Amino acid sequence: MKREDTAKKIVPFPGSADKLVNDGLKLLKKGDKHDSLRQFLEALQHEPGHEEASYGLLLAYADTGKFQEGKQLAEKMMQEAIGDYFEVLQVYVSILAQLGEYEHIVTMLEAVLAEQPFPARMAEQFYELLELSRHMSETKAEPMPTEELEPVLEEQLASWENTFWHGGSEQKLKTIHDMRTRQPQEVLPLLKKLLGNEQASPLLQSFMLFLLKDWKVEDSVWVEKLGRKGEFSPATLRPVKDSTSYIKSSQWLEKALGHDNPVLMHHALELLKEILLFYYPFPPSMQIEPLTAVLHYEAARQSGIHTDVSHITQQYDVSDDQFCQVLQDYEKIKPTLSDI
């Protein structure tokens, strides 16, 4: 019998694609990359255009080294608006890096950045990859020698400061982008001033620290944010995903969700990165176990999944009172987590 005839005789049952996707994600998590790939392909036979199946297949292509297939699928998904654009973009640029297409990464990310800011939870990774790609492609926009560079005028610094206080999110991110073309010593006084002002946006302060880290600034800077104070050398700051808070929380989430619901675990990890980015370079003010339980609960709530709070508190070994207190604290800051 011909392969096409066999495909035509596949009868899609309600929920069959979802089950295949869930099984595929479990296999991918266990390291059974090729088997997971087959699960995603079969899911797409049942339901072409299934968002989670498409994204799972993209991950499987990347993990199995099928980079050309992954590249083509990611481009198709972005063109046809299948899945979350930035999550697909994140995998796409990592595949381009594996293929050594660094100039393509620079062109792609700069084009995206010109249209809209990166999502806060992904901004650090995108900026780091953009800088690496510029370096690898030998097209990184290095600051011009001092004698050839128009000095930053006091009026320009004042305009930038005004934008940081009163501008919109896109204006602020564009200003950070413009600062990257300057000599660090020209803008360092302004950045230090804002990093030491607790009234500044916490997320914007984090992006300023990433800029100083990219410049490998070793001089200590004083940071005041969210009731915390401290002195840091930007060059030695660890990425968010290398922080003790991220490692510990991700281990709890892996234990609770890694086997049964890897999609929900991924969602909770994105919420975790968002809150750690908000507090960066400080750890969150909430205890990590009840915070992780709250993020599990929040991810489930956003996904429309009913959850039993008592079951969640048992999974993370926290009391109901601890959970409720941290949930209350989280609800207070949640509306401002993405404010720049």
Describe the structure.
There is one protein chain. The termini are far apart. β1 and β2 (228-232) form a beta hairpin. With 340 residues, this protein is mostly helical. α14 packs across α15. The protein has three domains: 3-99, Tetratricopeptide repeat domain (Serine Threonine Protein Phosphatase 5, Tetratricopeptide repeat, Alpha Horseshoe); 159-236; 241-336, Cyclin-like (Cyclin A, domain 1, Orthogonal Bundle), CATH 1.10.472.10. 34% of the residues are buried. It has a two-stranded antiparallel sheet. It has 17 helices and two strands. It has helices spanning 3-8, 16-30, 33-46, 51-63, 67-79, 85-98, 102-115, 120-136, 154-166, 169-179, 184-195, 202-214, 244-257, 262-279, 288-302, 309-315, 320-333, and strands at residues 221-225, 228-232. It is globular, with a radius of gyration of 22 Å.
Domain unit count: 3
From the coordinates shown, what is the CATH architecture of the largest domain?
Answer: Alpha Horseshoe
Please trace the helix and strand order, writing H or E for each element.
HHHHHHHHHHHHEEHHHHH
Amount of beta strand: under 5%
Assembly state of the chains shown: single chain
- Rounded mean pLDDT is 85
What is the overall number of helices?
A: 17
Label the overall shape: globular
Radius of gyration, Cα only, in angstroms? 22 Å
Number of strands: 2
Question: In the CATH hierarchy, what is the class of the largest domain?
Answer: Mainly Alpha
Trace the largest sheet across and list its strands.
Answer: 1-2
Residue share in helix: 55-70%
Under CATH, the topology of the largest domain can be stated as Serine Threonine Protein Phosphatase 5, Tetratricopeptide repeat
InterPro entries: TPR-like_helical_dom_sf (IPR011990)
